Amino acid sequence: MIKAKINNIDVQVKKGSTILDAAKLINVHIPTLCKHPDLHATAGCGICIVKIKGTNKMMRSCCTPLDEGMDIITHDQELQQTRKTVIELILSNHPNDCLQCGRNNNCELQKLAGDFGIREFPFKQHLRNLPEDGSTGTISLVPEKCILCGRCVQVCQDLQDVWALSFLERGLNTRISAAGDINLADSPCIKCGQCSAHCPTGAIVEFDQTHQVWQSLYNPDKYCVVQIAPAVRVAIGEAFGFSEGANLTGKLYSALRMLGFKAVFDTTFGADLTIVEEASEFVERFVHKKGALPLITSCCPSWVDYMERFYPDMIEYFSTAKSPHEMVGVLSKTYYAQKNKIDPAKIQMISVMPCTAKKYEVSRSEQMFASGYQDIDIVLTTRELARMIKQAGIDFANLPDESADHILGDYTGAGVIFGATGGVMEAALRTAYHYVTNKKLAKLEFNNVRGLEGVKETEIDIEGTIVKIAVAHGIGNVEYVLKKVEKAIAEKTELPYHFIEVMACPGGCVGGGGQPYGVTDKLRIKRAQGLYQEDADTKIRSSHENPFVCKLYAEFLGKPLGEKSHKLLHTRYTPKPMYKK
Amino acid sequence: MSGKNDKKIILVCDTDGKQREADYADTIISVLAEEKLDDQVQVVRVAELGIYGQGVIARILPENITYKLNDEAMINQIVSEVIKKNKTLRDAVLEADPKQLKIVLRNCGIIDPEKIDDYIGQDGYQALAKVIFDSSPQDVIEQLKISGLRGRGGGGFPTATKWNFARSTEADQKYIICNADEGDPGAYMDRSVLEGDPHSVIEGMIIGGFAIGADKGYFYIRAEYPLAIERVQKAIDQAREYGLLGENILGSNFSFDLDIRLGAGAFVCGEETALIASIEGKRGCPTPRPPYPSISGLWKNPTVINNVETLANIAVILLKGAKWFSGIGSATAKGTKVFALTGKVKNSGLIEVPMGITLREIVYEIGGGVFEDKKIKAVQTGGPSGGVIPKEFLDTPVDYENLQKLGSIMGSGGMIVLDEDDCMVDIAKFYLRFCVDESCGKCAPCRIGGFQMLNYLKAISRGKATQDDLVKLENICNAVKKASLCGLGQTAPNPILSTIKYYREEYNQHINDRRCAAKKCADLLRFVISKEKCVSCGMCSRACPVNAIPKNENKEYIINQEQCIKCGKCFDTCKFDAVIRE
User: Which of A60, A83, A126 is facing B288, going by the closest CB pair?
Assistant: First the structure.
C-alpha cells in the first residue's frame, strides 16, 4: 500500500493507483475531459493537472501514479487559472452551439464550462468547418465538435478491436474520422456506438430518428406499435433521476401508451422465442449432430456485422435465429395483424433499443422484410426515447405501472436477462437442458456466466454430457475465443467450446451504445442486477415455459425450427468485405 | 584488425569562402603529378575544417597537421618536404582554434566515414574490446557516472542514471535506441557526426547494449538525412563483417545487432515516447510518462534512448578514462558540446567547445564577431524550445543550469546570433510557428494554445494588438507551459516568454506605437522612395510583383502605398539606397 497526502488529507492506495483515482477515494474531485474509467489515460485534455507541494511543475493526475510520501495539491490559484485557460482554449476551438447539439444538457465540456463560470470567450474562435459523417445511419460523426480526447479511438481500437476510427492529420488540423478518410459506412465500423457512449461532447451521437417517430405517431393512417428491449427498462430511469439499475418496466409501458402507441410489446417476449429456436438449434447440432459446432449466438447486430467482415469463414457456426426484436417485429406484421385484423401496411413498428447497431440491423438483409414489409420501421435508442418522453411533458417518475399488450408482451425471467452478458447463454441452457433431458433444472442460475469478466469459460453437465461454453463481451475479447476455435478446427482436435455467446458491448446490452451516458463497470453491474432481480422475482423463469410462446406455436408457427419459423424467425449471413470500395 | 592507413590525404579548404582565381587544389594535384606522387596522395576539396578567415588551408592526413597556403611556393614546399620526406614545417603549422576541443567530432573530416579501417586506425572499437573483455556492465556505468556525462539531446539527464535504470529493470528483451531525429531549424550536429563518423556512434551503442543488457538497437534517423542513413547502413554492414555486431561479438558471449528505422520528419518524434510509438508503427504522438522508457519503452521493454552526440562520447570516455573527461567542462556539465553556430556571425558553422565556455568567447573568438561588425543584440539557444539570452549575459559560462536560469535551454545545440536588425517579436513568431506546425495535435494546451499564441504574435507584429492581448498571450504561455503533455508543448512558449522577459519594451513599441525598431515587421513599415537618391533606373518598378511602383509623368517612381504588399523586393533591389523603410 502507498501512503501519501492529497490536499493535506491522508490517503492509502494500492501501488500503481493514479493520483486521480486516489483523490476520488477521499472525495476530492479533479476535473478531466479525456480520462474515462473504462479506458487507459491518453492524457489529451490537460485539465486534470495537479502539483506536488514544493515544486512548480504540474503533472496529469490521470496517468501519474501516487508514490509513497507524495504531497499533492489538486486546487490552488495557479492550478485553477491554468485549468480555466485550457478550458477556454478548448472552447475557442469548439462550435459552442450547445442549444442545437445532440449533447445539450448532457455534455461534459458544457458542464465543465458551467462549473468554471465561463462567461466570455477570451480567445478568438477558430472552427475547422469539417463535414458531418452520418453515412451509417446509426451514429453521426460531428468532427467539428470533437475535442480530441481520444476516447472513441481507444474504444474502437482497443476495447472493440475494430479500428474503424482513427486520428487523421496533425497539429491544429488533427481530426477524428474513419481511418483512411473514407465514409464510416465504407469502413469496418460495426455500429456498436460505444464511441458515442464514451464521447464527452456531441462529436459522436446516435443518428436521431425521434422526429420520424413523431411523424408516424401523429399520422392517423399509421398504426404505431412499439417494443422495448430488456436492457432499456433498467437504464431509462437514469434520465429521470431514478437510482442506478432501477427497473421501470411498468412506467415505460405507461409512457409509451401516453406517447400514442396503439400497442405496447416487449422485446423480452421475442427473447423467449429466440431461446426456443436457438436452444432447439443447439440440440439439433449438439445432440443430433446436424450442423456445425460450436453454435454461436447471433442476437447482437454489431457482432453479426463483425463476424461477416472479420471472420467470414466462421459464419456457419452462427445461430440462424433472428434477434428478439426482429422476431417481435415480423410477428407484429403477421400474427398480430391477422389476429387483430389490421392492415400490416399501416403498422409502424418502432423498437426501443439500448443499441445503435439495431438501426442498421432492420434493413441489413432481405430476411428483415419477412412479413412482406420492413419488419421494424424505426429503431430508437434509450437516449432518444428519454428525450421523447420529456418532449411530451410526461412526468415519468409519477407514472402508474401498466402491463404490456398480449401476447407479444408477455415474457419470462429467462428473456429479461438477455440484457446482461451471459444472459442469453443462461437462458438457452435452461431450455436446452429441458429439451435434452425433458427434466426441470434444480437450480436455474448459472453464476459462472454472470459478471463482467471479459471471457467467461465454463462447463455444464447435462446428465453426464459435458457442454463447454464461452461467453465474451466487448469485441476485443472475442479474438481469444475464436482463435481457440479456429485452431481446434484446423488441427482437428477437440473443440474448446460447444456453445458461445458474444455481445459486442462491454457488459452486454445493459452497456449498449444507445444507453444513457456515463457508463462505467459499476453502472453496468447495477443495471444487470436490475435484470437478474426481475428474473429472480418472476414465477416462470424458462423460455419454453412461456405460455404465450407455446400459444404462438400452437396457433401460428407450428413447431420450433418448423417451416413457418424458418421463414419468419431465421436469417442468413453473408461474408462482407471489411472495406467497401 | 588492420593497422593505420598509410596513404596520405590532403584536405584543401577555402576558409574565407571567397571566389578565387587560382584553385589551389588543382595546383597541388599538378605538383603531385609532376613528382609522380599522384597515386599515393589523395587531394580532397572540403567545405569546412572548423578554421575561418585564414585563406586557403591544407590539412595533411593521417598526421592531422594543417598548413596555411599563402602561395604556390608553399605548395611546392609541402609536397617536397611534408609529403616526400614526412617532415613537419613547424613554423608554418596552423594551430586549430584553441577555444575549440574536438571530442565528439574527433574523427569528422579526418577519416573516411565509409571505411571502418579508418575508424579503427583512430583507436576505434578499442573501447568496445576493452569493455567486453575487461569490464562488467556495472563498471561501464560506474565509469560514465564518474565522467559526469549528461544527455546531449537537450534535457541533460545523466547518462549513467538512465543506463542504470534500464540495467536494473528485469526483462527478457531490452533495447537501445539512437535518437537521430534532429529537427531544430538550422541544427545539423547529429547529421555531421553520423555522416562523418558513424562508427563512433555505433561503438557507443554496442557498449550501451552491453551495459544495460540489450542485444538489439535501433537508429532512428529522419528520412531527410539520406547520406547519414547510407553511411550508417554501410558502417553497420562493415561492423557486422568485422564481427563487431551480431552473434558473439569479438568472440565473446555478448551479442548485439543494429537496425535503422526512418523517421518521417515529425519534429515531435524526437521526444522519447513519440519516437517509440513511431518505431512501433503507431502515430508519432507522445504518451504520458511514467512509465519511463528505461523501465517500459519499445514494445513495453526497457529501452534506453540516447542522442547521437551522447553516444559519440561513450567510446572515447571509456578509452581515455572518466577522470580525463570529467576534467573538461564546468562544475555541473562535463565534456564538450557541439553547437551549430549561425545567424549574424562572421564564421558560422559547426563548433565543438568545452562546457563552461562563455557565449562571448563563442561569438567573438570562434565566430569572429558579428556580421558586418554590427552590434550584437542577443544569442538564441536551444532551438524552438529555447530562448534568447541578451548581450548583457554574454559572459555567462555555457552549461545546462546557467542557460536555464536565463530562461533558455542548452537544447540539442542550435545557437543563433542576433544583431540589432533582429526584431524580437519576429524571432518569437518564427520559433512559435515552427512549434505550432510540429504539434502532434494530441493534447489541447499545445494544439490550441500554440495556435492562439501565434495569432496574438501575428496581431502584435501587425500593430493590431492591445496591451490586453499581451496579458492574454502571457496567460496562454503559462498554461501551455504547465499543462502540455510533452516537452514540445511545455517549451513552445519559451521563445515568447524569454523575449517578453528581456524585451518587453519592444513588444510595447509594436503595440502602443505600432513601430518595429528593427524594421522587420512589414506591416508596421512603409516603403518610400527618396527623391534625392533615386536615379529613376526603374529597377524597383520591375522588381515589384504587384506593379505598385509606376512611373509618373515626371519620370519619377513613387510607391503606391495602397497597392504595396510590403514584400521588400524594391528595397533589396535598389542599388542606390533610394528605397527607404520607415
Answer: A60
A526, A530, B77, B264, B294 from A247: Cα distances, Å? 10, 6, 104, 55, 51
Contact criterion met (CB < 8 Å) for B283 and A167: yes
- Chain B positions touching A62 (Cβ under 8 A) are 288
Strands A263-266, A295-296: pairing kind: unpaired
A187 and A262 share one domain: no
Q: Do A64 and A119 share a structural domain? A: no
Q: What is the 3-class SS of A285-332, one letter each residue?
A: HHCCCCCCCCEECCCCHHHHHHHHHHCHHHHHHECCECCHHHHHHHHH
- Partner-chain residue, chosen from A45, A89, A147, that has the shortest CB–CB distance to B449: A89
Same domain, A393 and A499: yes
pLDDT tens digits for range A145-166:
999 999 999 999 999 999 999 9
Rounded to the nearest 5 degrees, what angle is found at the Cα of B28, between the Cα atoms of B25 and B30?
Answer: 110
Locate the chain A residue with the closest alpha carbon to B473. A123
pLDDT in tens, B98-151: 788 999 999 988 889 999 999 999 999 999 999 999 999 999 999 999 999 999
Q: At which residue does the C-alpha cell 504561455 appear?
A: B477
Task: Give the C-alpha distances (Å, rounded to integers) separating B7 from B3, B4, B63.
Answer: 12, 9, 11
Interchain proximity A171–B485, CB inside 8 Å: no
Strand locations in A363-454 (E): 378-381
Task: Please check whether residue B432 is in contact with residue B495, taking contact to mean a CB–CB distance below 8 angstroms.
Answer: yes
**Chain B residue whose CA is closest to A57:** B482
Check residue B3 and give its pLDDT.
Answer: 40
Q: How far apart are CA A303 and CA B465, in angstroms?
A: 56
Which residue from B231, B403, B254 is spatially nearest to B308, judged by alpha carbons?
B231
Query: 3-state DSSP call for residue B191?
Result: helix
Query: What is the rounded distance in angstroms from the CA atom of residue B330 to the CA atom of residue A45?
Result: 40
Residues of A carrying an active site annotation: 278, 281, 299, 319, 358, 361, 366, 509
| CA dist., res. A409 & res. A416, Å (int) | 12
A80-92: b or e for each residue (b if 16 or more CB lie within 10 Å)?
Answer: eebbbbbbbbbbb
Is A524 found in the same domain as A438? Answer: yes
Distance, in Å, from the CA atom of B217 to the CA atom of B234, rounded to the nearest integer, reads: 16
Which three cell numbers, joined as nine digits, stand for B107?
574523427
Nearest to B340 by CA among B192, B488, B197: B192
Residue A580 in any domain: the answer is: no
The CATH fold of domain B116-324 = Rossmann fold (3.40.50)
Looking at the structure, give the CATH architecture of the domain made up of residues B424-513.
Up-down Bundle (1.20)
Q: Quick check: ipTM above 0.85?
A: yes
